[in-house]
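Duplicate of #3305? Posting structure anyway:
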């Protein structure tokens, strides 16, 4: 029994001595490395300190820029976090390179991983990038009436998110459009300028007095209550068609009154032309029956 206890004690003592020698060896190597890399270590720490200060300054300037441009808080927070992570990653990679570490393999692995993730999420990333562009450049805003050219969908913008834009159509339906397609097509914004021109055309018989027709069109448009004061009302002959002279009238209105103004003035033009006895030609089909 005593021999067994002595053997165990000898094993423990040998293990302790071995660990002590390994720790001493590791400490010696660490001290040698620090002594050899002391200057580089100091330069790296200084580089990290100055780089950290510069990153904080860049983030501060970025936040003030977003505030001046009235960027959405969600987009501003996302972009600020993205830029901060990117800059700190570059800072630490550069610091490791200064210390002599091989970062090429790490950067390559990071690039391959990013490409793999990008291919897997390319649709979502396209929508994300499109949403950021829309919220920064603001081709339209909530409350604007727009028409998206690729799908021909139109309506009032009721929401702009990071990934999707929501439109409410005139018949009160909600249309959700991915921001990726919104940022890669032409968009007609009908209300951004606050004013629009309504154009209404009507065909009149060839024998009618052209000046009289123009006067009636101008009177109806001016008296509609929609025409903006100080803006011109233009009446013109648009074309000479097979069975009629095509007249047109243009007048300025508030963008929000577009449909109401067009419908109301069109109806009133028809009523006035009928009251004045002016003929509006229409296609007729004569059928002759021979027995």
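Output from current build:
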């Amino acid at each position: 029994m005593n021999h067994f206890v002595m053997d165990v004690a000898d094993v423990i003592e040998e293990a302790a001595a071995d660990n002590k020698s390994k720790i001493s060896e590791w400490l010696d190597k660490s001290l040698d490395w620090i002594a050899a890399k002391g200057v580089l270590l100091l330069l790296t720490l200084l580089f990290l300190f100055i780089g950290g200060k510069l990153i904080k300054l860049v983030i501060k300037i970025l936040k003030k820029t977003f505030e001046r441009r009235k960027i959405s808080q969600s987009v501003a927070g996302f972009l600020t976090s993205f830029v901060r992570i990117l800059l700190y990653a570059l800072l630490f990679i550069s610091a490791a390179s200064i210390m002599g570490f091989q970062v090429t393999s790490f950067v390559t692995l990071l690039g391959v991983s990013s490409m793999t993730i990008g291919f897997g999420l390319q649709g979502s990333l396209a929508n994300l990038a499109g949403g950021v562009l829309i919220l920064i450049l603001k081709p339209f805003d909530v409350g604007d009436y727009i028409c998206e050219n690729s799908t021909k969908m139109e309506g009032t913008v009721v929401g702009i998110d990071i990934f999707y834009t929501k439109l409410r159509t005139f018949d009160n339906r909600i249309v959700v459009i991915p921001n990726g397609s919104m940022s890669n097509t032409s968009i007609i914004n009908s209300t951004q300028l606050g004013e629009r021109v309504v154009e209404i055309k009507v065909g009149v018989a060839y024998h009618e007095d052209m000046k009289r027709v123009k006067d009636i069109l101008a009177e109806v448009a001016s008296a509609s209550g929609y025409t903006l004061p100080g803006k011109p009302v233009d009446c013109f002959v648009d074309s000479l068609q097979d069975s009629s002279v095509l007249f047109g009238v243009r007048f300025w209105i508030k963008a929000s009154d577009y449909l109401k103004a067009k419908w109301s003035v069109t109806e009133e033009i028809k009523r006035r032309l009928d009251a004045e006895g002016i003929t509006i030609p229409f296609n007729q089909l004569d059928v002759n029956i021979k027995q």
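Confirmed duplicate; merging threads. The chain has seven helices and eight strands. The mean pLDDT is 80.
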